[in-house]
Every structure is written in structure tokens, then in C-alpha cells.
Amino acid sequence: MNSPQSIPTPGAVPPRLQLVGITKRYPAVVANDGVSLTVQPGEVHAVLGENGAGKSTLMKIIYGTVKPDEGQVLFDGKPVNIRNPQEARQYGIAMVFQHFSLFDTLTVAENVWLGLDKRMSLAEVTARIESKGAEYGMDIDPLRPVHTLSVGEMQRVEIIRALLTDPRVLILDEPTSVLTPQAVDKLFVVLKKLASQGCSILYISHKLHEIRELCTACTVLRGGKVTGYCNPQEETNASLSRLMIGAEPPALQYREVKTGSVVLHVNGLSLKKQDQFGVDLIDMRFEVRAGEVLGIAGVSGNGQRELLYALSGEDTRAAAHMIEVAGKAAGRLNPRQRRQLGLHFVPEERLGRGAVPTMGLAHNMLLTRDDAVGRGGWLNIGKLQVHAADIIRRFGVKAGGPNAPAKSLSGGNLQKFIVGREIDAKPKLLIVSQPTWGVDVGAAAQIRGEILALRDAGCAVLVLSEELDELFEISDRLHVVAKGQLSPSLQRADATLQLVGEWMSGLWNADVQQHLAQVEAENGGTQHV
Ligand SMILES: Nc1ncnc2c1ncn2[C@@H]1O[C@H](COP(=O)(O)OP(=O)(O)OP(=O)(O)O)[C@@H](O)[C@H]1O
């Protein structure tokens, strides 16, 4: 099917990519409804829309992993029928997925190699990952098995893998959701360079400032339909929000902190790493009181994962007294026993750890909630469904009802459901990793608001995040984690980007600073003061 939009002017350079009238229907929803979009060579084009608007579906259609019901894709002005990712790669299309598509048991290099259609030897790929990783500021050890990586590290692998294909069209579906600000800056330099060399980039992000900095064109989707085009560099965050959700996100209501008793006491937690790529936890000491939010900042892969496992009960090697929950020694308790003490937990991986992909949302409630389990273990399915439907309503989750499989939800909607399930449990202690990963600006404001409401109601909240803006917004106090050690506590008012940034490299410790100064002096450089 052709439309006037799809016929290039004779002699003119045709658009690199054109979508014309793309429609994709799922049983419960029309994910894309007659979507048209044009990307020029060298253009960085944003696709903007709230959670569930249909962005990922559209990108998967370009990459050949989803087949459209109607519509036409044109590449360099010619109609194409891309049936799978191999064919997409032959056209020079590369994609960084929102949900990582890495094999857990293979190494980084093997994963990258698999995505490169094997024109290079594994040794060559290994060397290129090292050199490109250093060039892009995304160092990663090519020999590490993927299951030992943090989500931030997995995101780096996905990006390096896509960049190594020298793409002509690069699709990035929320590539920065768990990257640090420094890594994002470096990525943007790389992307701008690629675009200046003629690569077209399709960029999906809920971070509006990123879109304004990077993109010169933008297509806005709402409910599967295109609702507008704009140049993000001529917009503000507020006007982009209005285009996307019809409103600006509500401002957070921050009330002064009134803390109560200590709910989580981590008392000299030291743990040896469980595999060679892990991080030793070294004498960690902190507490979280009822009615406060404690944030832990840090570059992913500095012990956050190990700390989360030790706190949730997935790792029970700590001595009992090293972790006290509500005054009880909890280091050896399993996750269920810890839940009985009032500890609820949102893990960093939402598919797999936070939810079982093939199970319906109602059944996914059972992972952490037993409200619908009666005497003798009988399950009250009706109650379970009503409960799931409540969470769907309260948190504005777009899903085809309480029985929709977790994997059928858009990324942001699944995150809203998982966070909602744990907040709804009215925990005494809530531990959340990356609370607003992939959720749109409206939903992010809602989740942060709900976290603050929990804290105002006397819950102790521990938030681990790489997003400093988010931590500054909701935390009453902050620690920084680096190389398995925890910095001293900082009051919210004393936490500046610069200070926290320095501490993220471990520079809070006088000994460390002195050592660095000495090394620098020995190398003939100027000394730190
Ligand atoms: N495999 C599937 N089966 C059923 N429904 C699906 C499937 N994939 C997507 N959908 C539905 O299509 C709609 C669009 O989803 P999509 O993932 O494209 O949204 P999105 O704009 O990328 O959202 P987010 O910002 O949360 O990632 C959603 O309502 C989603 O539930």
C-alpha cells in the first residue's frame, strides 16, 4: 500500500525509513492504529508517548520481531518486508531492546558475537568490545557471563552490541533507563557522531530532557495513534508532557520528615562475593527509620545487587544479627519470613524476578502476597482477581484485565503493577530498586508520590537507584555505594550532584583521597588538596 507520503520526489535523497499506515492489533488492544512516521538520513528522531502508547510495538515491527496487520515499511524509498531480525540487520537496522535480549549463561562476548551474524571471530569480537567499550565510556569485561551482570551493565552490553554493527538505522528503546548520568553523556556524544555520519536514530525515552538534548524530530503517539509531530529542541519539558499525556505531571508534595524507631538496621554486613565477578560487601552499616526514605546512589555493579540479595533473603549467608528488621535478627531468614516481619521488596529485574512472564497478573500477586490464600492453602481465585484489578485501577496500569500475562504488558505498565503490588501491601519496610524504571513522566510522579505517602504513614523506605535526580527528589538522607563499601550518610540538603558524583568513585574516605594524592604526586601531577 502506498500513499502520497511514501513516494519520494525524483532526484531527492529518499527518507531512510518510512512507515505508512501501520496497524497492529492484539486481542485486548490496538497497539498501533494507522501509524505513519518518516525518518531522514542522519536524523535523531524521538518517539514519545505514555506507557502503553505503542512505541515498542512500532519499533519491533521495524526490526522484524512483530508482524504488522496492515501498512507498509519503506527503506531508502523502497517497500520492504522485514520478516525477522536477521533480515533487519541485512538492511543495517540495529536495535537496543527495552527488555534485554541476552542469554544469561553465555559471556558478554558470546552474546555480542551471536548478534553480529558471525562475520567476525569470537576473539575479534572480544577485542572490539574492549576497545569500543573504552571509546564509548562503557567498559565491560567481555569474558563475564551475563548472569553475573547488573542491569546497568546489561544495558551497556546491549548498546555496544548494536553499535558494533555500524548501523544505518539504530533503534534505541529506553537505552538509558539504568545508566548513570556520566554514561548517558558519553552515549550522547557517540550517538551525535553516528548521526553526523549519516546513521538515522530512532530514540525512545521517558526522560524528556534527553529527548530535547538529542533529537531534532519527534513523533508523538497516544493510544496507538499519532497525535503530533514536533521539533523537541523548540519545546519545553512541560510542553512535551502536554503533547504526550495532555497535562503536566503533578508536583510532588514533600512534607518534613518525622522519623520513628529503627526498622532496618544493617550492622557491619560483610559478605564475600558468590562468583568471581561479584562484589564483596565490606562492613556496611546503616539504618532506616520509620517515616524516612533513605536513598542509596551508586554506579550499577558496585554491590547494589549483592546488598539487595542479602536484604531480601535471596542470599541468607549473612550472620543473623547483621540485618535486623523491626528489631529481629533477620540475616538468616528467607524472603517469606522477612515478609512476615513487614519487609516488601521490588527487585531490579522486573521480568523473571519481579514477575513470572507467562503468568497472569492475578497469579503474579501470589509471588509476594498471600491475602487470597485461605486456610489449608486453598486459593480464592475470585479474591485474587479483585485484588489485582484494584491495583490495576489504582496505579493506572494499562492491561487486558487481571488475567493478562505479565509479558503482554508494556514495560512501564508492568513496572507500575509490580511497584503497586508492593506498595499496596502496606509494608513496614519497603526496599525498592529503580522504582520508576521505564515509566512515563505522569506515572513516575505517581509512584514517587505513593512512596512519599507510605513514608508519611510511617513506613521505612530504602531506594536504590542510579538516577540521582530521582534520589534527590524523594530521599531524606543518602548514602553512596562504591566497591562494596558505603559512604557516610548525607542529609538531603547537603547532597550536591558534584559531591555525590565524587563519592560514586569511592572518594569519601580520607585514606582513599590521601592515597590518590600520593599516587598523583609520584606520577608528577598536582596534589589533591
Ligand atoms: N505480545 C503482546 N500481547 C498482547 N498485548 C500486547 C503485546 N505486546 C504489546 N501489547 C499491548 O500493546 C500496547 C502497546 O504496548 P507497547 O509495549 O508498544 O507500549 P509502549 O508505548 O512501548 O509502552 P512503555 O512506555 O510502557 O514501554 C499495550 O497495551 C500492550 O499491553
UniProtKB/TrEMBL annotation:
One Pfam family hit: ABC_tran
Source organism phylogeny: Bacteria, Pseudomonadati, Pseudomonadota, Betaproteobacteria, Burkholderiales
Residue ranges constituting the ABC transporter domain according to the UniProt record: 17-248, 264-508
Keyword rRNA-binding: no
CDD domains in alphabetical order: ABC_Carb_Monos_I, ABC_Carb_Monos_II
UniProt organism field: Comamonas avium
Position of the signal peptide: none
Protein name: ABC transporter ATP-binding protein
Keywords: ATP-binding, Cell membrane, Membrane, Nucleotide-binding, Repeat, Sugar transport, Transport
Single GO term (MF): ATP binding
